[in-house]
Amino acid sequence: MQTLEIIKNVHWVGALNATLRVFDVVFQTRFGSTYNSYLILADKPTLIDCVHEKFAQEHLEKLRSLINLNDICYIVVNHAEMDHTGALDMLLKEAPNAQILATRTAALFLKNILHRDVQGRMVEDGETISLGNKQLRFIHAPYWHWPDTMFTYLAEDRVLFPCDGFATHFCDERLFDDRVDDFTEDFRYYFEHVMGPYRKKILEAIEKIKDMDIRLIAPSHGPILRTDPWKYIHAYKDWSTARKDPYKKLILVFYASMYGNTRKMAEAVAKGATTVNTEVKLFDATTVSPESMRCEIESADGILMGSSTINGDALKPLWDILNVMFSVNVKLKKCATFGAYGWSGEATRLLEERLRGLKLTIVQPPIKALLTPTAEDLKKCSIFGYDFAASLTASPAR
Ligand SMILES: Cc1cc2nc3c(=O)[nH]c(=O)nc-3n(C[C@H](O)[C@H](O)[C@H](O)COP(=O)(O)O)c2cc1C
């Protein structure tokens, strides 16, 4: 595919990768992805974002079809991740007059990516620069999804370039949201997996752009959003806003159980944890999809995990839930573990170790029951749940 003029004098010069099936090792890209890069043909020609190293040559050719590379004045690096900067080294050699514009953090990251000094300068939050007949404004948006990120706004044309914000791993050369196939599910997937851990930061940056006049969003991956850009911004806002009862602490109890022993413990724990100040949700980890638990985990104040021991380990469904937690903001949430066992009982300790590794705070030692829990064991489980709830309600709501 060649270049595409997305609005007058703004050209898409990115790359398509239709066969990509996984991104950053862990994110699924079932319909491939695109690396979007945009050339603004203003008095001072400016490139917004670059592409993956693999597409460096193709990117140069696209640029050359539109401009003499010596004429590029600025290259805006909204975010330094290598899928947008991999081709930068080669481009800078061919475009010797280009100055890099980036946040302080992105400039620092670039130094450690390129390992050489480059021309350019840092831009402040809210700063504008003139391209002659057009103006660019920079809006810092840290943790969308790296600490270095900013958005760039092309004022005259009312175009927002938010880099990975509002992006989708979805390759369709028709490019515009009104022309490509339905990408709703993939847009949500990208949000949950890439932006999900930073919901607070999402809301902070949306607050900064909420009064801006935006007619088109040109992200760094996937479709260009022109039909109703605010629909996508509102979706991000909606997905980032906690939906739990603000007056109650939310506790999630996940368990897996082969013969119902840990299940009985989980039910007693959940019962004990249910107080006037808490809302408790009990999940059999063998029947829920871990992915569907993302929002619940994000909203929770406390997480209890129960597993019996199997071959010296915890049951896999619990590991699957923990696996999702790595891309959710769980830092400092409170947690504890429980489970039935036969002789060695490693499961609770192993779960604790992983929870600690994910930076949750373990508030009390595990509770274990030998083989089949007795009435006395279940009573202890109930107290265990109550104590856990008490540890949460002693601290202010998150
Ligand atoms: C296949 C299998 C492997 C087990 N391995 C262990 C083990 O390594 N250590 C241990 O303490 N108990 C082990 N147990 C015992 C269970 O943890 C115990 O029966 C427990 O009560 C099961 O609780 P549940 O019904 O909640 O799964 C094993 C049980 C099974 C069926």
UniProtKB/TrEMBL annotation:
GO MF, one example: oxidoreductase activity
Family according to the record: In the N-terminal section; belongs to the zinc metallo-hydrolase group 3 family.
Taxonomic placement: Bacteria, Pseudomonadati, Planctomycetota, Candidatus Brocadiia, Candidatus Brocadiales
InterPro entries, A to Z: Flavodoxin/NO_synth, Flavodoxin_CS, Flavoprotein-like_sf, Metallo-B-lactamas, ODP_dom, RibonucZ/Hydroxyglut_hydro, Rubredoxin-O_OxRdtase
Record Pfam families: Flavodoxin_1 (PF00258), ODP (PF19583)
SMART domains: Lactamase_B
PANTHER family, alphabetized: ANAEROBIC NITRIC OXIDE REDUCTASE FLAVORUBREDOXIN
Domain Flavodoxin-like: 251-389
Protein name: Flavoprotein
Cofactor: FMN
Superkingdom to which the source organism belongs: Bacteria
Record-linked PROSITE patterns: FLAVODOXIN, FLAVODOXIN_LIKE
Organism encoding this protein: Candidatus Brocadia fulgida
Segments forming a coiled coil: none
